[in-house]
Amino acid sequence: NAGVTQTPKFQVLKTGQSMTLQCAQDMNHEYMSWYRQDPGMGLRLIHYSVGAGITDQGEVPNGYNVSRSTTEDFPLRLLSAAPSQTSVYFCASSYKLEAFFGQGTRLTVV
Amino acid sequence: AQSVTQLGSHVSVSEGALVLLRCNYSSSVPPYLFWYVQYPNQGLQLLLKYTSAATLVKGINGFEAEFKKSETSFHLTKPSAHMSDAAEYFCAVIISGYSSASKIIFGSGTRLSIRP
């Protein structure tokens, strides 16, 4: 049972490039979320999904897109990367009152 | 709106000493509250959660937290610190109206250091 798997673990992008952060879970959870972690700010919710085909915005959605075509996958897209998006990104899947987090993707935008 | 405030971005204690990490919450409705731990270069792991049952909640690794409505607090404690407790700890609350952990508001985190 792998839990929540995020790829890649590390990524360096140039300003203006696009990329997709992958997130997959094998626990058949309906709820999935993306957070970014910045020093001194804890984790902030970017987007979340309550099931396949249903997504919504969190606290800091600007510059990010998501889709949920299957229960297992919840990719996060950066359409035009900016230095302000340098951060550590965590994907989580949740069941009732417990969230399970991936290991994170450390993204640097130069 | 729900929020949590963690007092102290860095706490340092000696091995064997009491650990106390402070968290205050703001919520207009009874909250669901959590403590998560993050070890270096790892994701977050749930330590314990308060769901309006017992006010004293016991978690993993000897940690516990007490929900005090009168003080709007949910402080995390451990009687005797161990070197392996060194990590960052996050207090969190679920956004009102949601009964799942899909929308969590996190505090800014407290880094716990343990002195030998």
Can you describe what's shown?
- The complex is a heterodimer of chains A (110) and B (116).
- With 110 residues, chain A is an all-beta fold.
- Chain A has strands spanning 4-7, 10-13, 19-25, 31-37, 43-51, 54-57, 64-66, 76-78, 87-95, 98-101, 105-109.
- In chain A, a hairpin with a 2-residue loop joins strand 9 (87-95) and strand 10 (98-101).
- Chain A starts with a strand and ends with a strand.
- The relative contact order of chain B is 0.33.
- In chain B, strands 2, 4, 5, 9, 10 and 11 form a 6-stranded mixed sheet that branches. In chain B, strands 1-3-8-7-6 form a 5-stranded antiparallel sheet, with no helix packed on it.
- In chain B, a hairpin with a 5-residue loop joins strand 4 and strand 5 (44-50).
- Chain B is mainly beta and 116 residues long.
- The mean pLDDT of chain B is 90.
Concise account of the structure shown:
The complex is a heterodimer of chains A (110) and B (116). With 110 residues, chain A is mostly beta strands.
Order of helices and strands of chain A: EEEEEEEEEEE
Average pLDDT for all residues of chain A: 94
Helicity level of chain A: under 10%
Provide the low-confidence segments of chain A as ranges: none
Helix content of chain B: under 10%
The end-to-end distance of chain B, rounded to whole angstroms, is 41 Å
Quaternary structure state of the chains depicted: heterodimer
Class by alpha and beta content of chain B: mainly beta
